Predict the structure.
Amino acid sequence: MNHTRFTEFVLLGFGNLHSFSIGVFILFLLIFLFTVMGNLLIILLVSTNVRLQSPMYYFLCHLSSCDLMISASIVPNMLAAIILGGQIITLVGCLTQLYFYSGTTITECFLLSVMSYDRYLAICNPLRYSSIMNLKCQICLSVWPWVLGLTLNITGVLPISNFDFCLDNKIDSFYCDLFPLQKLSCSDTSLVELEVFLFSMPIFILPCVFIIVTYVCIFHTVARIPSTSGKHKTFSTCSSHLIVVGTFYGTLIAKYMVPSKGASLLLNKIISLLHTVFTPLFNPIIYSLRNQDIKKALPFSSVHSNSNMV
């Protein structure tokens, strides 16, 4: 049969918002600006402040870079789709967006497990922490998540470039994702689905299991501390990371558990919005609000002013 081969797609975004489009556009534009400024501020503070020259903040700097890339790869096209009622994107642009989004998502999974390992060493093995977590180890542990993230996702993105898209060119979402593209293809996608499933299981589940195991060890160590204040002080060093892990994996798991059809499509969009737009905004807020060192490093910080007065 003869088919029309589509080389362009239309991101439908959130549908026709009518008179609300301007308000929704301004809201998400502000969220995007705050996300960029918040993560850039953390990178700047970690890079320039002597108080923050430690492995924990070094990995946090990489996490902020990861959040910046996720937000930058998704939000601009989403804003255009909101204000225009839909955004045309080429197949190359769609695959590029999918590559950077999936790559940075994989990178963040490994970065969060690296950060949990750092907290495990600091709390459960403090005497050997400095010797193990030296500069060479920090660089290796920060580089490998990026290498794995930006190479492993090629196995899912590259085969899609050979698909024939002839069923439709409308993507009922605000960004290019793997499953909507597979639905629009008239090629056999079963092999790609199997590849993605086999690769995604260890990529997402193993880091999650590793984080759970490290925190079980951390909780066990904290529980043996005799004083309540000692327990609170020790656990406060990793509470922000634990909240970020819960937010990231909670939205990621929910995103792929909710079926993207029928009445569940709106719920799937909301969860995707939480994962791709709000999580990169929450991370710098969580770390800046719950971390005393970052509070003190902030310019015109009240904590910094009070400590100077004392």
